[in-house]
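General statements about sequence and structure are easier to judge against a single worked case. Part of our work consisted of pairing the sequence of a single chain with a tokenised description of its backbone. The amino acid sequence and the backbone structure tokens for this protein are reproduced below.

***
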Amino acid sequence: MTGGAALAHHSFAMFDQENPLELEGVVQEFKFTSPHTFIILVVKQQDGTTQTWSLEGGAPSALVRDGWSSKTLKSGDELKMTVEPLRSGAPGGAWNVGRTKFKDGRPIVVSH
């Protein structure tokens, strides 16, 4: 019985992988937690207001293999990201290391 629930947890069906979005914003919080990491990103809208996006990433163990740690991002960091948005239209989506950079174009890499 729990097999279906476990598969559902790992489904990416809620993300629109066919229509990625470019986001630029400021990190409010970087959650380096299991089973998935999250970047809470404040994005400035065209009308000057802000919108807070909750972006789900890979497991901390996967990010560690790419050189990341809980201290890689800090509140106030400015990012440019390509994300797979939520199909619901809510301000959220999926992110990955390869499609996340600092706003000035520098890659986010921690030397090992």
User: Anything to note?
Assistant: Helices lie at 2-9, 60-65. The two ends are 42 Å apart (CA to CA). The beta strands are 21-31, 38-44, 50-56, 78-85, 92-94, 100-102.
